[in-house]
Write a structure and sequence with these properties.
Elements: E1 7-8, E2 13-18, E3 21-26, H1 28-34, E4 37-41, E5 48-49, E6 54-60, E7 64-68, E8 73-78, H2 88-91, E9 100-104, H3 115-123
Antiparallel strand pairs: 1-2, 2-3, 3-9, 4-6, 5-8, 6-7, 8-9
Length: 124
Amino acid sequence: MIPEDLYYSEEHEWVRVDDDVVTIGITDFAQDQLGDIVYVELPQVGDAVEAGSTVGELESTKSVSDIFSPVSGEVVARNDALDGGEEVINSDPYGEGWLFKVRVGDDATEGLLTPEEYTGLTSA
C-alpha cells in the first residue's frame, strides 16, 4: 500500500512535506526489493544535498544500494535510531524507519511523483 499523503522519487524514496522541512525515507517497495537491511550510512546534519545526488547507502543481506536525495537543501536531522536498529526500515518504512530531514526552498515537490504516478512506476 502506497500512502496517499506523500510524494515519491523514481529512485523509490518517499517525501513527507511539513512546511519548509521534508522527511525522507525509502518506500515499502524499495525495502522489499533490498531484503533485510543490516547497515545504513546517512548524510550528516548540516550537509548540503542536491536533488538526485547520492547522500548515503543502505546495505542489505542481498546488496548495497545508494540513497539519493529527492530534494535540494540542508540536512537538519538524521534518524540516529537506525544505528544498530536498521531493521525498522523493513518493518516500518513510512514511520520509524525514516532516514533524514532536509530544509528546502519554495517548491519541495518539484520533480517528484504523486502517489498515483508512483503506483504506475512500481506496477510496470
